[in-house]
Write a structure and sequence with these properties.
Length: 174
């Protein structure tokens, strides 16, 4: 989990390196273990296709530097006319174990034509949950950030690992 402070550092890093004419406004920088996604607003007079062509070389240059520095792929996206479009972003495989009743849900979505496969059905379910629980997930992420802050302020791990002199006596020494 990435902290809010780390996200802001990443946002600042991208804001410093992106030429002024790439985005009207840097909207969001999202990061996980595999990928950094940079989303910005483009002028209403420019299409997503025009943006991609006009900024390709600039974005590639920034992405190469970020990928070397942060060891993650960089994906790009735009907001235009209230719509968000992502391009060149990863689809990462995730392993899971499901019970028969859970597999039946996925199989029903496939049979009903909602999804092409169990993997698509699972992705559909995750998107649906994310869409319908945004506020709850935001609260949970905030709580996780607080836990990370508290852990970081905890006692020095090296000191905590040292045995107390009283604890180091062998049994039978009493």
């Amino acid at each position: 989990m990435i902290t809010a402070e780390r996200r802001e550092q990443l946002r600042g890093w991208f804001a410093e390196r992106l030429p002024i004419d790439v985005y009207e406004e840097l909207v969001e920088v999202v990061v996980d273990r595999e990928e950094i996604t940079v989303v910005g607003r483009i002028p209403a007079t420019e299409s997503v296709r025009e943006f991609r062509e006009r900024t390709r070389e600039q974005r590639i240059e920034v992405a190469r530097e970020a990928e070397e520095l942060y060891q993650r792929k960089v994906a790009w996206g735009v907001e235009a006319e209230g719509e968000r479009t992502l391009f060149t972003h990863l689809a990462v495989p995730v392993m899971t174990r499901l019970r028969q009743s859970e597999r039946a849900v996925l199989d029903t979505l496939v049979a009903g034509g909602v999804a092409r496969s169990r993997a698509d059905a699972l992705a559909w379910c995750v998107r649906l949950v994310g869409k319908n629980t945004d506020a709850w997930l935001a609260d949970l992420r905030g709580s996780l950030e607080k836990v990370q802050q508290v852990r970081a302020q905890g006692p020095d791990q090296a000191e905590a690992a040292k045995p107390d002199a009283a604890d180091s006596r062998k049994s039978g020494d009493e």
